[in-house]
Amino acid sequence: MENIKYLLWNNKGGVGKTFLTYMLSVEYAIKNPAEDVVVIDACPQSNVSEMLLGGNGIGEENLEKFRSNNMTIAGYIKDRYERSRSSKIGTETNYFSLVHTYNKHMPENLYLLPGDVDLDICSTIINYLGTAPERGAWKKSRWLLCDLIESFESRKGTNGRKQVFFIDCNPSFSNYTEMAVLAANRILVPCTADAASIRGIRNLFKLIYGVPYGPQELNDEVFLMFSTNARDAGLSLPLVHRFVQNKSRSNLADAAQAFKSHVQEIEELARHMKTQHPHLFTQDLFTQDLFTQGNGGEVLNVKDGNTLATIINHVGQPLTTLQQKKYRIYEQDTQANNSQIAPLVKDIMIVLNTL
What we know:
By secondary structure, the chain is an alpha/beta fold. It is built from 13 helices and ten strands.
């Protein structure tokens, strides 16, 4: 059976996808110690790498060591360009690191392919490889991340352990985002209750699948390039698995009318796309017994992390190990309360139960 590879993406920044990637991957690894969990950081900002490697300060230092040694996702692309442009270089598995080695707060079955700010520079390399005058050049250029993952799967697969991947990437649809899309087989769509996030979801369907939300949206050629190239190369695309509304209100009844209106619009968008294009979704999406939050069923809610996100960013430890106490962050005491921790843990566990 093929390993599950989740892409967390929305064509809109600020929807909490990196924090969600962190929480889901870490808590999944804790909950499933018999499986190997791998985080792929395909975002130039590399925030999920810094959190996993120890948080602000030590996490940044550890990540800089990986960058200096060229042992990041960008490092591999550069090495591949210099050493073997059309085939694997044979050391792909070396680019993955066991997170617990660098951060003792982390579970021992969690691996990381570190991010790198040089990914934006590598986009030039990917574009060059993709336009080379040789057959299958576009596919080869977008298959670099798949080569890395396949090598990890081949090495670790001999122990019989299931492997689950979580891929974080930035909101732009760059060529390295295209690599991430092709490496995944499921998509988790983080979103927030605002108009820009909703436009980002619509763009997701246009950019990845070449599918507009409605007849009023033109099938502009720019939106069809990726899906056309992928189809021509005989590549399969990941299926949408869940919509996860981040930063939700704990009490929707008390929310502003604009917020409630956007929540409803996201649910309607999800239902519409599932009805019109069911082949783009995993089969169990909208199975009613999975949804217990009373919001209509189409979108899972995750409470706004607020202070907890700040603490986790700084200390780099799992959500479920946070205690009700003060944490020292940038020379100031920041209080974590059970009234914040418990609802967020509950929401994350509901999402985990749908994976």
